[in-house]
Write a structure and sequence with these properties.
This protein has 6 helices and 2 strands. By secondary structure, it is mainly alpha-helical. The protein is elongated and about 65 Å long.
Length: about 180
């Protein structure tokens, strides 16, 4: 059973790294768009129509594309002060509280995934878009799909952290050695 969980962990970790890389590429694309807008305004007194909408679209993508890797490397923003103090005095209590927090986070991400899936299907079918027609429009379904994939990856990572207490530590260091 542990071997299967480690294989799942390895696959999900690689997927988390991949989504992080894609998120980084979106950040670089966003930098290019903003610089293009600045140059257009400065040199030609014109604007790049849809720049605001593109930034809004990109921000959601960046957050949800990079979230699984943040979970994987245990860098999710939370207050660990209490856990650090109690971990020195009663390590078992810290272990169980950490598992409880990860279980709650897992449930939360499952709820996000379950809630967003029908929206993704609806947006894919209706080809609903956001933006201003004639200026800039983009379909909603890629955003919904990224949120769904992120939710599934995060819930899987949190579940693995509950099932395997040191989840991510060995895979994290091994993956970092392979990437470097």
């Amino acid at each position: 059973m542990t071997s299967l969980l480690k294989q799942i962990e390895r696959f999900v970790s690689y997927a988390a790294i991949l989504t992080n890389v894609i998120g980084t590429l979106v950040v670089l694309g966003l930098v290019a768009v903003v610089n293009y807008e600045v140059v257009l305004r400065g040199l030609y007194n014109k604007s790049f129509h849809g720049a605001v909408e593109l930034v809004q679209f990109s921000m959601v993508l960046i957050v949800f594309l990079q979230l699984p890797d943040v979970v994987r490397v245990n860098r999710l923003t939370r207050s660990d002060g209490f856990l650090a103090v109690i971990g020195k005095r009663v390590p078992k209590v810290k272990l169980y509280l950490d598992r409880l927090i990860n279980l709650i986070a897992c449930v939360f991400m499952v709820l996000i995934s379950v809630a967003i899936w029908p929206e993704f299907l609806d947006m894919l079918e209706t080809r609903d878009y956001f933006g201003v027609p004639g200026i800039f429009t983009a379909p909603w379904w890629p955003v919904k799909l990224v949120i769904f994939i992120s939710g599934v990856l995060c819930s899987t990572l949190f579940a693995l952290k509950v099932l395997i207490p040191d989840s991510g530590d060995s895979v994290h260091s091994e993956l970092d050695r392979n990437v470097a």
